[in-house]
Structure formats: C-alpha cells, structure tokens
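Please decode residue identities from the backbone states below.
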C-alpha cells in the first residue's frame, strides 16, 4: 500500500478537513481523510480505474466522491500554493528566473477542453517551474491551442505573488506581441528565434539561460511517471487538472 509519511501528512492536513457526520446518523462512520488521499495517490501512480482499488483502501465510490469534492473546491491548488509559498519563505524557491513549457496527453474520456492535433485528440499540460525545477504553475487546456496563447492563462495559476524577471521557453514562445505584453508586466521572455523570423530581437548572451530549460522537461518527466497523467480518462476537465496538481504536490512535499 502507498502511504504518506507522518511529517508529510502533518504538513498538508489542514487543507483536508475530515467529514463532519453526526454520531446519531446511522450507517458507516466517516473514512479518515488521510486514507482517502493515499487511495487517490494509488490511482494516480498506477493509472488504474477507480473500481480496481485494492481492498486495503476505502471503498472506491467514497474515494472518487471525495476526490471530486476536492477538485471542485480547489483544495489541491490551495495545497500547492501553500507549499510553494512556504518553500519561498525558506529560500528553497527562486522565482526570479522561471521556465515554461507544455506536454501533450491523449484523451479518451470527456469532451470539454479536448482539442484535435496531428497526434490525435488530447490536452496540453502547461507548467512554469523555478530555477530548481519546483512547480510554480500547472494547468491544462485543449491541445489545439498554441502555447504562445496560453502563457497569460498559465500565470492565472501562478502560486507566488511576484512574477519572474526572466521567463524562458522554447521556439513556441517566440512572439513579439507576447514579448511586449510580458515586458509591460516586468517579465522578460527569453526564447530562441523561429527559423522563419526575419528581425532578430534576442540577445545572444541572454539566450545562454536557455541551456537550463531541461529543468522544466525534468518536471514533466517526474509527473508523467504517474501513469494516470499519460492519458486523460476523466470526463470532467477539473478532475484531470486535480490529478496534475496532485502529481505536482508530490514534488515540493519531498522538500519538507
């Protein structure tokens, strides 16, 4: 069975209140929230269907219901934000220089926020990480959107107050309108030029920072080790986003 360490659970338990059920109500007693969360982590890691939860975990219907409740109430986003700000206060997160990228996940369930591509229909997982590879923003969108149009939307999920001084991405983020928009907000976009660009705007010395873009690629490798993120089976997009956020939570949680 997959279990959280006691210190990890104590760090996040305030965001997961226990179910308040009157003692006078007949039927089963409430399931401890920690056991429910560990069951969701098992689903995230294995990619199995809900009804395949082993007997050592709570009933899968209870686990699924509680997980959907957390997604609707944005509990997992609040946990991720709390962890990011705690690490920032301790000096473990450096938000002055960040890296942005997206990865593709095919979709087999649902119809909302799914887009057609050459690789089939799917979703894009967008992420912004700091210079240590720790997540500062994770979000999901239909796969047929250009990444350059999703940068500002990704900042809506940004977890710390101050935006980065430098934001580094690949050629997909080479856009003069995006550069100007971010510059007005105090963010310098650093991205290699597209091959068909005629007017060069990037300073070659600043482009050296691009060599560290592997940090965001490593982040995707970390979260996609969780098999539930390889294919979107969830009917509702907020449930798939919840799994992405939970996978991201596991990374900063290791720092405590």
């Amino acid at each position: 069975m997959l279990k959280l360490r006691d210190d990890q659970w104590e760090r996040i338990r305030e965001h997961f209140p226990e179910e308040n059920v009157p003692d006078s109500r007949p039927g089963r007693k409430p399931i401890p929230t920690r056991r429910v969360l560990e069951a969701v982590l098992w689903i995230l890691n294995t990619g199995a269907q809900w009804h395949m939860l082993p007997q050592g975990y709570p009933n899968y219907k209870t686990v699924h219901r509680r997980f959907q409740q957390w997604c609707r109430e944005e509990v997992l986003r609040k946990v991720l934000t709390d962890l990011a700000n705690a690490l920032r206060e301790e000096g473990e997160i450096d938000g002055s220089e960040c890296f942005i990228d997206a990865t593709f996940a095919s979709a087999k369930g649902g119809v909302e926020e799914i887009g057609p591509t050459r690789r089939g229909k799917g979703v894009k997982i967008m992420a912004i990480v700091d210079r240590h590879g720790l997540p500062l923003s994770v979000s999901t969108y239909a796969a047929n959107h250009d990444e350059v149009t999703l940068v500002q939307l990704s900042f809506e999920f940004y977890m710390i107050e101050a935006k980065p001084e430098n934001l580094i991405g690949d050629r997909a983020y080479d856009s003069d309108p995006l550069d100007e928009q971010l510059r007005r907000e105090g963010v310098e976009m650093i991205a290699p030029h597209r091959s068909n660009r005629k007017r060069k705007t990037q300073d070659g010395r600043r482009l050296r920072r691009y060599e560290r873009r592997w940090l965001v690629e490593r982040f995707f490798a970390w979260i996609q080790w969780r098999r539930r993120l390889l294919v979107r089976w969830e009917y509702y997009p907020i449930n798939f986003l919840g799994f992405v956020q939970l996978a991201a939570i596991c990374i900063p949680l290791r720092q405590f």
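Observation: The longest helix spans residues 237-253.
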